[in-house]
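Its record is quoted verbatim for completeness.
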Amino acid sequence: MCTLEQRGNLFFLTLTGDDEHRFGPTFMESIRSALAQVKSQATPGSALITTAHGKFFSNGLDLAWAQAAGTPSFRDRLSHLLDCFKPIVADLLSLPMPTIAAVSGHAAAAGFLLAISHDYVLMKKERCVLYMSELDIGLTFPDYFMAMLKSKISDPAARRDVMLGAKKVKAEEAVRMGIVESAHDSAESTVEAARRLAEQLTGRKWHGEVYAEIRKAIHSEACGLLGLTHRALVAPRL
């Protein structure tokens, strides 16, 4: 499951346990509940840091749950998982504060997408890869996955390697590709760097709704597919 802790203006969302943090219906409900709590308690100068315990940040959707129903129902259950994951991405893109993913374990498929749905991604150097596994396991990308990947990975060669090469990308290469902000030596130093970055950002005390609307405009294609609308907002600070 997950836990939510508030330390001053910073919210820490942690995917707990030593499993693969695969997204099943109950797990996704708990993440959405935590994000709703963050949104309800947001103030100017808030920020979210998402991290995870163990070897995995997240290994993607709970395909074992989808397969447990048998072959005829696998497609329906997979569609259900994708439909449940979609609002998590929407919640992050509409959250009224800066968001940082501190990736200290492998992030694959939907786990990769969870990471890049944050404004900043910081990553541990060792035993930690970003991996879009869909090609290797025989699945296409949902439209909102594709839109987010195009929005977040601007270099065509990097996007090709990630999506058409199923490349397992380590932290320092992810920095060169422009996917990750910085690479760090340990899980602890990754989270600490995320905390320092969050404190720099929260010191600006931006208006959360203005921040969220600008983010939605940046990722307009993805937001359209996620059912998010962009609105003009004026909150002068002069």
